[in-house]
Amino acid sequence: MLIRNCSGGIVFFKDTVLLLKNDKHEWVFPKGVIRSVERPDEVATERVAYEAGVKAFVLSPAGRTNYEFYSVTRQRPVCNKIIWYIMQAESDKVVANAAQNFSDGRFFPIKEALDKVTYSQDKSLLMMSYQRYKELV
């Protein structure tokens, strides 16, 4: 199994959170693979900017998740281990990166985002992160 260390952001703007719609029509948080010389918090910030066109900064660690899937292109199972950060955006303007297979992206009110987020562990992560975000700002 291929193990990939990743980093991503739970990005808030006021009482809304950033979600991206991927090529499988799943609503997800921005994230990317950490290369050996990169810091996880920097990767999260860069991926948020690259995938969503959103300038944001890290407020706090949010937690970790992992998931496994079978990669058709690699012809083997993959496990993504993700370090998440609570982030705050400078504005709610989003430009989903079509070159990264994102068809849509925007900030949603928390309640609506919880309905849209595809994976249950991401719903839990969002709820915990939002509580922490409200304490931080």
Describe this protein's structure.
- With 137 residues, the protein is an alpha+beta fold.
- It has one domain: Alpha-Beta Complex (Nucleoside Triphosphate Pyrophosphohydrolase), CATH 3.90.79.
- Helices cover 27% and strands 43% of the residues.
- The chain is built from 3 helices and 7 strands, in the order ββββαβββαα.
- Strands 1, 2, 3, 4, 5, 6 and 7 form a 7-stranded mixed beta sheet that branches.
- Helix 2 runs antiparallel to helix 3.
Characteristics:
137 residues, alpha+beta, Nucleoside Triphosphate Pyrophosphohydrolase, seven-stranded mixed sheet, 3 helices, 7 strands, globular
Counted by DSSP, the helix tally is 3
Percent in helix: 25-40%
Average pLDDT for all residues: 96
Low-confidence stretches: none
CATH classification class: Alpha Beta
* CATH fold call: Nucleoside Triphosphate Pyrophosphohydrolase
Sum up the overall morphology in one term: globular
Q: Write the element-wise H/E pattern from the N-terminal end onward.
A: EEEEHEEEHH
